[in-house]
Write a structure and sequence with these properties.
seven-stranded mixed β-sheet, mainly beta, 11 strands
């Protein structure tokens, strides 16, 4: 009964920017680590950014310095701001979150269905 929905993807020119959002809904008590992954067509899904419940962040080298992951715990949302986009950023971007459900112990991991980012002139 937990759903993650990504939004903000689309077509952007090289050098442009996008802000991706991941919204969690359902019977949520708390959310631990949230991560963004991406999967270019024909390639493996890879981790690009993550943020813990206390705000610690990690970035893959491919996006470090031009991306910022942030979270709004009150709204159960996580954002990924990406700047200076290039064609190698073209991929389906997925949100992954560790969620503790209300009235239930422990955490479960959930995936969103993904949002397409296409960088092209």
């Amino acid at each position: 009964q937990v759903q993650l929905v990504e939004s903000g993807g689309g077509l952007v020119q090289p050098g442009g920017s996008l802000r991706l959002s991941c919204a969690a809904s359902g019977s949520i008590f708390s959310i631990n680590t949230v991560a963004w992954y991406r999967q270019p067509s024909g390639k493996e899904r890879v981790l690009i950014a993550a943020i813990t419940n206390d705000g610690r962040t990690n970035y893959a080298d491919a996006v470090k310095g031009r991306s910022t992951i942030s979270r709004d715990n009150g709204k159960n949302t996580v954002n990924l701001q990406m700047n200076s986009l290039n064609t190698e950023d073209t991929a389906v971007y997925y949100c992954n979150a560790e969620v503790r459900r209300t009235m239930l112990p422990g955490f479960r991991t959930y995936w969103g269905q993904g949002t397409q980012v296409t960088v092209s002139s």
